[in-house]
Amino acid sequence: MGDEQAEKEPGVIQALLGGSRSWGVSPEEERLEFAVDKLGVENAATLFRGITIDAPAGIVFRWLCQLRAAPYSYDLLDNFGRQSPRKLTPGLENLAPGQTFMFIFDLVDFAQDSSITLRLKSLLSLGGRMGETALSYDIHDAGSGSCRLLVKIAIRYAWGPFGWPTRLALPPGDLIMMRKQLFTLKEMAEQQARSESMPAK
Fold this sequence. Notes:
The protein is of the alpha+beta class. The protein has helices at residues 3-8, 12-17, 27-30, 57-65, 75-78, 163-197; strands at residues 22-23, 45-53, 100-101, 105-111, 115-120, 132-143, 146-156.
C-alpha cells in the first residue's frame, strides 16, 4: 500500500470510532448475497469488512489461499511472532473442504477466483455450544483490473454469561485484526499485479 492510499484510510482509532459492525463496506454492498449466507447460521449477528485492491480477482483469490499458512494480521499476536509469508507458498491454491485456515477455521466451500467460506472449528466452539462463527471472503470485479474484497461474518453468540463478553469484545477486536489483514493482503496482491504487468527485459 502506497503512502497516498495510506493517507486516505482512517487509522485504527478512527475506524473504531466509526463503529465496529461495518468497515469499508457500503450499504448497497451489505445487501449483496454472500457465500456465507448459504450456511444459514441461525440468529446471527453480522459484521462487514471491505477493501479495494488494484489487482485482478485471480491474484486476490490466490492470496486468500495463503490464509491456510498464516492469518496475515498482527503476527506477534496471532502467528506466534513469525512473519506471515511474503511469497506465495506452492500448493496452497489446491483447495478442498475441511482444510484449516488461520489455525482456527475449516474451509467449508469455495468458488474459484470468487469466494472462500470458512467456519470456526467445532472443537473451539464446543460443537456449537459456545456459539458459532462463519465468514466468507467474496471478490467482486471493480473494473480497470481492480476488485472489491468483501467479508461478511455471521456470528451466533452463546447464551448466558459466556455470550455477553464476546458480544462486547469480538466486533472491535475483529475490526482491528481484520483491518490489518486486509491491508496486508492488498499490499501483497498489488505488488504481485505490478510485477506481472512489468514488461520482460
